[in-house]
């Protein structure tokens, strides 16, 4: 009797284990394979000094793109680039800044040599050479006849070094702010305006590195801290902050020649036309009606490079790129046979102005008008809460995200309404949005500690690995269902 009982118990246990094994599907295995450790391995690789900050057009960026493409290949993604490869190549301008350079200010009882990175960053696309000149404070550096405003009115900057503030001379509440922001706030515009007025160089205040500024032959510039500007204003009644607030408050220029001061800049750089690439891999669709109607998941792979000092770009945007890669791996191993293609893109040259996404929408792998949607991941490496932008307007899509979070993650999930992109754009997702593809941003909220943006301190150690794992799991779960839904339509 005891033997029969033991035998029966053994059979029951065997059947239970067999049932449990059958229920642990390829989907489950792939879900549980998503790992914060692996995501961080990807992040650390992208941030290595040998990749020199992944500047678009550089050999180091291309080497990093090859590294990512090798993973796409190992996971079995179909190449989506040129001529059956993973790369979609396009032209860019490339400037290699060789070292920290020199920045000095001289004046009566003043001879200051500044330190990089404490006081300045070299311009990412500065020309090479030595420039000495009289500084001229030109406020926001804007000439806007349609708005009745001109920082250059009545002041001669020919052959001089202009000091330019970021932003525009009005607050967001101003009814004309949208026009100010779209046409006059960009650093590219401000450099063009300075060059058109004959300036020989520029100091951008705010010490904020920005690779979107175009190269101008012979034009030397850098980004400086308020300390440098305050030194230049010595002998006046102004400080950098008070002067900028005064312009905004009065809504009129307060430009001035900073007499008795001389700025000296010396930078070594090499500039040349180059090419860079998007890295594209995809899982084909199985439904003939939907085989050219994809879902796109994207993040930009590039960062600011190494203009005198390494900008690792961990949060911006090794975090997003690593999550795209981890999600691509999980989806490829899930056993899911999607009805529509699922396309994974690591964009090049986002930092100079979303050049990779702009190139893709002009040369899409699948027709834009048939593309279901795009999910963009940019700076998603720090926080404790989840965010999906734009899905409130699309209840069916929002339901996929809320159900996946409730079933698997149970994080606080923030969502928002959809809005059409217009004016000045800042992300790859907005480029798709503007070109008629519904685009949604995945991100995080409730940051942990301090985060950094466009500075050398943006390193992997400032990230929150657990939230990155959950973003990937959320996206993976939604993709597995969304790509197999033949009926969903995303129309407002």
Describe the overall structure.
With 492 residues, this protein is of the alpha/beta class. It folds into 2 domains: 27-94 and 272-482, Aminopeptidase (3-Layer(aba) Sandwich), CATH 3.40.630; 100-267, Glucose Oxidase, domain 1, CATH 3.50.30.30. The protein has helices spanning 2-23, 26-33, 36-46, 59-74, 177-184, 187-196, 226-232, 240-250, 314-332, 355-362, 395-409, 428-434, 465-482; strands at 78-79, 87-97, 102-107, 110-113, 120-122, 129-133, 135-137, 143-144, 149-150, 161-164, 201-205, 220-224, 256-257, 261-267, 269-283, 295-300, 342-347, 373-377, 385-389, 413-415, 439-445. Strands 1, 2, 15, 16, 17, 18, 19, 20 and 21 form a 9-stranded mixed sheet that branches. Strand 16 (295-300), helix 9 (314-332) and strand 17 (342-347) form a beta-alpha-beta unit. The termini are far apart. Residues 4-20 have low confidence and may be disordered.
Describe the protein's topology:
Elements: H1 2-23, H2 26-33, H3 36-46, H4 59-74, E1 78-79, E2 87-97, E3 102-107, E4 110-113, E5 120-122, E6 129-133, E7 135-137, E8 143-144, E9 149-150, E10 161-164, H5 177-184, H6 187-196, E11 201-205, E12 220-224, H7 226-232, H8 240-250, E13 256-257, E14 261-267, E15 269-283, E16 295-300, H9 314-332, E17 342-347, H10 355-362, E18 373-377, E19 385-389, H11 395-409, E20 413-415, H12 428-434, E21 439-445, H13 465-482
């Amino acid at each position: 009797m005891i033997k029969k009982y033991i035998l029966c118990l053994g059979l029951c246990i065997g059947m239970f284990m067999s049932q449990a094994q059958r229920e642990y599907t390829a989907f489950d295995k792939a879900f549980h394979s998503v790992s914060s450790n692996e995501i961080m391995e990807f992040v650390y690789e992208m941030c290595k000094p040998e990749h020199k900050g992944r500047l678009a057009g550089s050999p180091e960026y291309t080497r990093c793109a090859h590294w990512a493409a090798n993973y796409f290949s190992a996971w079995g993604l179909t190449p989506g680039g040129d001529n059956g490869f993973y790369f979609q190549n396009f032209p860019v301008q490339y400037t290699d800044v060789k070292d920290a350079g020199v920045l000095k200010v001289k004046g009566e009882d003043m001879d200051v040599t500044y330190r990089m990175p404490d006081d300045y960053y070299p311009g990412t696309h500065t020309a090479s050479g030595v420039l000495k000149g009289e500084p001229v404070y030109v406020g926001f550096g804007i000439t806007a006849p349609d708005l009745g405003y001109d920082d250059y009115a009545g002041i001669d900057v020919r052959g001089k070094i202009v000091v330019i503030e970021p932003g525009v001379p009005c607050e967001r509440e101003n009814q004309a702010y949208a026009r100010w922001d779209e046409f006059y706030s960009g650093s590219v515009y401000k450099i063009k305006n300075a060059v058109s007025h004959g300036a020989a160089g520029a100091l951008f205040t705010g010490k904020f590195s920005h690779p979107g500024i175009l190269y101008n032959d012979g034009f030397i510039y850098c980004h400086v801290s308020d300390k440098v500007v305050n030194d230049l204003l010595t002998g006046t009644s102004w400080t950098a902050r008070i002067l900028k607030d005064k312009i905004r408050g009065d809504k009129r220029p307060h430009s001035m020649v900073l007499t008795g001061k001389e700025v000296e800049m010396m930078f070594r750089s090499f500039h040349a036309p180059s090419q860079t690439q998007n890295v594209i891999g995809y899982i084909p669709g199985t439904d003939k009606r939907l085989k050219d109607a994809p879902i796109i998941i994207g993040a930009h792979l590039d960062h600011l490079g190494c203009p005198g000092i390494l900008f690792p770009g961990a949060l911006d945007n090794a975090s997003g790129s690593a999550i795209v890669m981890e999600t691509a791996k999980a989806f490829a191993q899930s056993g899911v046979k999607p009805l529509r293609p699922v396309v994974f893109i690591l964009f090049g040259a986002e930092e100079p102005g979303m050049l990779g996404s702009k190139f893709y929408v002009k040369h899409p792998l699948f027709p834009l008008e048939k593309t279901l949607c795009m999910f963009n991941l940019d700076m998603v490496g720090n926080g404790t809460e989840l965010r999906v932008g734009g899905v409130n307007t699309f209840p069916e899509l929002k339901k996929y995200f809320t159900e996946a979070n409730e079933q698997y993650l149970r994080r606080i999930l923030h969502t928002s309404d959809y809005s059409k992109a217009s004016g000045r754009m800042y992300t790859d997702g907005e480029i798709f949005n503007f070109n008629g593809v519904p685009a949604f941003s995945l991100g995080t909220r409730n940051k942990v500690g301090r985060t950094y943006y466009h500075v050398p301190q943006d390193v992997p150690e400032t990230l929150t690995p657990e939230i990155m794992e959950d973003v990937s799991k959320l996206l993976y779960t939604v993709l597995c269902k969304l790509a197999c839904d033949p009926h969903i339509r995303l129309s407002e």
